Amino acid sequence: MSLLKRLNYKNRKYYDDDFDWENYTDDSYHRRLKNDIESKFLTIAGPDDLTFDRSTGILSTKDRGIHPNHSAILEVIGQLQPETVHEIGCGAGDHVANANIVFPDIQTSGSDRGDSQIALAQKRHPDLSDTFGVLDATMPYSRFWPRADLVYSQAVIMHVHTAVSHFVALSNMFAMANKYVFLMENLQCHNFVSDIQNLHDGGHTSWETMYIYQFDGSTGARGVLLSKEKLNYPALTSDAELRKGLKFSKRRIKRSEQDSERGIFGTKIC
Fold first, then answer.
1. Domain segments of the chain: what residues?
2. Of 35-39, 129-133, 148-152, 172-176, where does mean pLDDT reach its minimum?
3. Mind giving me the DSSP string for the chain?
4. CA 171 from centre of chain
5. For 185-217, what is each residue's pLDDT tens digit?
């Protein structure tokens, strides 16, 4: 190999996730939870703090509001009314706990790849400790993983960039979901619409039919809703549609393109 080729080989990009997940809780999560969320929003709701109006599909708060992303998650649950819900990357478990309060008849659970994250969720919500468990969505699918009508993530897949890990995680979410997948992520960190469409067209999802919709929460958060059946939400055909009106990030879009280019999707082989 020539000197130039050796230099190019050594300088090629090895993609890493945004965090060291083994140390994520102590290094980043506690600080972000305290400074970015708890300082500004209600995180652990009481019995009377949150109310969902089924006639309007809107969540309201008694006093202090919750984060717009968290509000959208509860609104999509309330509008779809699944019997079971599972969160990928549940972190401190607050979304699971709040959903359990607002929708007591819906079975909720959560998982995270780190023992320290699960320990934190169990400490904050000891009455729900049995509903939390360790699960790394970037691993090959396991038949022991829980299934639910609705499987969602919140600020999780956006941080996954190693090799084709985000493709694996998305495929696994479909395998775990009976009806719906919901992504409440930074929509510029991956090409979610095209990546998911390519996964489905390439046979990497367990669903025979799939519809892609934009879900806008009442407080401004925007997510991607995937469904096995047709729903009355704005249909999405491109990431440009999904990102319309968002503040443009050249760096994130560039990395999204690089992540998408690593996908090699299934084709029929005779």
1. 33-261
2. 35-39
3. --HHHHHHHHTSPPP--SS-TTTHIIIIIHHHIIIIIITTS--S--TTTEEEETTTTEEEESSSPPPHHHHHHHHHHHHH--SEEEEES-TTSHHHHHHHHH-TTSEEEEEES-HHHHHHHHHH-GGGGGGEEE--TTSPP-TTS--EEEEEEESSGGG--STTHHHHHHHHHHHHEEEEEEEES-TTSS-HHHHHHHHHHTT-SS-S--EEEEEE-TTS-EEEEEESS--SS-B---HHHHHTTSPP-HHHHHHHHHHHHT--------
4. 12
5. 999 999 999 999 999 999 999 999 999 999 999
Spatial separation of the C-alpha atoms in residues 175 and 35, rounded to whole Å? 35
Where residue 25 falls among pLDDT bands split at 50, 70, 90?
A: confident
For tokens 């990395």, the residue is 255
**16 against 135, higher pLDDT:** 135
Domain 33-261 has CATH 3.40.50.150: yes
CB of 78 closer than 8 Å to CB of 176: no
Distance from C-alpha of 53 to C-alpha of 71, rounded to nearest angstrom = 13
User: Which class for 95: exposed (0-12), middle (13-18), buried (19 or more C-beta within 10 A)?
Assistant: buried
- Compute the residue count for the chain: 270
Read off the amino acid at residue 80: L
Q: How remote is the C-alpha of 50 from its chain's centroid?
A: 22
